[in-house]
Design goal:
The structure is a homodimer of 217-residue chains.
Chain A (H helix, E strand, L loop, with lengths): L2 H20 L2 H8 L3 H8 L2 H13 L14 H18 L1 H9 L5 H27 L9 H18 L14 H12 L32
Chain A binds a DNA duplex (30 and 30 nucleotides) through helix 3.
Chain lengths: 217, 217
DNA sequence: TGCCAATGTAAGCAACCACTTGCATACACC
DNA sequence: GGTGTATGCAAGTGGTTGCTTACATTGGCA
């Protein structure tokens, strides 16, 4: 493994667990198994190293794609949520630290914030398309709905480390639980038997049987 | 204003914008308009000051209460969301910083996490009561639903400072947008004309008229 | 007036920080 | 063998940090 690369990943790891002030050049170099001077010879300054490490870390793409034309909203939103949630969980520590230092290093925070802003636009467009195609109700706002689904996944991914008792579901099944509620919110039918392996146990036993809505009581 | 109190609020403010490593005793004292030595004479050490400041800050109660017995779910959940959201917005900087330092100072993070964990239990109990009383559908999980509503409000409150363009709604109306979606998710009717002042403009024009659900197409 | 507690000023300490200089070592390539 | 390049080691620079010591000032109260 190249020395530069070792230093970059070490910088990211130390940053995650100590913040930029706690990420001292000594600690980063030691984490990379490299002399501290090598760090300066390669990157010139700590600031340059940190900014490069953060930039290349948040450039990692999210591997969840929504089709331009929706076909099976339940299945597509579930797959999308799984991918996005996994990405959030993988980078949870970095995201938390970068958010915590937004006031002191707004550029780092903005670099981390670029990704979700773009993803939000994609989801919003997909949801609007659902409405156009008659695949969902039309009496809700795609922007708010997109914020809702993303926010739910985000705060689960961030809070799971801080309040484990608040999240009894496994990371694997949590997104499905939220998506189920979300589909009801936007007026999409609950998924049919698409995923026989994981479809059934995610709802309460009396599933669907008592779906009463009080209409003008 | 007492010197102790001035130091505590100054410590909190500096912590919010610089983190615990950036919150130097010199800076806190200067922020409080007090000599640095007075800080040590009052609190003995920086760690003691910070822990007391954080403890008393996160002890501030959330002023949103849910009734033990639900009467008007839409109105009650909307009021609850408004209160909780306002509290989150007020403490957003502190919460972000504390979350970012979870790895280095887990006790501070746990002290901040205590409040939402308790609130989550209250909301979950309320939602379960809604189901028992037949005021909502029964084919969803109160735990996941509580996480969803809280997570939505939380990530809006945290992200609004970092990505203003992602949140075009004002802080005043954002909770209502989410609550509207949430009520649909849990199968509660949209609020009737309870809030004539703010009820109408929060839904799309064709409100309720095209609430179609594809049933076994 | 004298006393005492709270606060301020000045100076400094050891530890740590980012970063530099000077020199030794290793290894690849000609 | 000679040369250049990458790395390591030792030491040190000026600056900051948490915290201390010693002494002066203030103001309320007996």
């Amino acid at each position: 493994m190249d020395v530069r690369e070792k230093l970059l990943t070490a910088a990211l790891k130390v940053f995650e667990e100590a913040g930029s002030r706690g990420a001292t050049t000594r600690r980063i170099a030691s984490e990379a198994g490299v002399n501290e001077i090598t760090l300066f010879r390669h990157f010139g300054s700590k600031a340059a190293l940190m900014s490069e490490a953060l930039a290349c870390a948040s450039a990692a793409p999210v591997e969840n794609r929504l089709p331009a034309e929706p076909v099976d909203p339940a299945r597509e939103l579930l797959a999308w949520s799984h991918g996005g949630y996994a990405h959030l969980r993988r980078n949870a520590a970095m995201i938390r630290t970068a958010m915590g230092e937004m006031e002191q290093a707004p550029d780092a925070a903005r670099c981390v914030a670029a990704n979700p802003a773009r993803v939000h636009e994609q989801l919003k467009a997909y949801l609007a398309r659902l409405q156009e195609r008659g695949l969902a109700s039309t009496d809700w706002d795609p922007h708010a709905a997109s914020s809702m689904l993303m926010g739910t996944l985000f705060s689960d991914a961030m809070g799971r480390d801080m309040m484990p008792e608040k999240y009894p579901y496994s990371e694997a099944e949590a997104p499905a639980r939220y998506v189920l509620l979300f589909l009801r919110a936007i007026g999409v039918d609950a998924p049919a038997a698409h995923h026989p392996a994981e479809g059934s146990p995610l709802q309460d036993p009396e599933r669907g049987s008592t779906h009463q809505r009080r209409r003008d009581p």
